[in-house]
Amino acid sequence: MTAIYTFDVFASLDGYGSQSGGDWGGYWGKQGPELLDHRLALYELEQRMVFGANTYRQFVRMLASSTEESDVRDPWVTRMWGLPATVVSTTVEEPLDRPNATVVSGDAIDVVARLKEESEVPLRSHGSLSMNRALMAAGLVDRVQVTVFPVITGQTGAERILQGAADFDLELIESRTLDGDIQELVYRPTLHV
User: Fold this and answer.
1) Is the entire prediction scored with pTM above 0.85?
2) Smallest Cα–Cα separation from 150: which of 42, 51, 12, 36?
């Protein structure tokens, strides 16, 4: 049986995954108790995380420079960081400063195809934009889970989540509203030919 792979990403309404400058803060300052509880429940499930090198390094930097009271240390992030993980990289070296994580060198498409065949638990990747765009084009992403925050970051937005992606048809398989104005949309992608 092939493991389900979910590309999990946060975005502004105009499709940015992060910001450069500005004073939005984490989650664009829009997180609420429903979002945080839902995220924690999502990461309570047994699963394996898959990170690209850049996202892994970003998490390491964010966690190292954060305090226990910061958004970065929300319980769901702590839970996610404790899950078993595979870091796909030719530049990150072991030992990793993270529990239950291993580095697998090689092409992400080959690594994830093998993980999907061998894993007994679902696979999830939070962020890792360029890696996940390549995995989508290769037909390895089963679910795209986009959490859309009610902001437009036309002046401060950085990293469009799907910039340069192939064309896809999307089948909506789940949706929910959190804290009154945050949308979580889960799609099944199919390469548009």
Assistant:
1) yes
2) 12
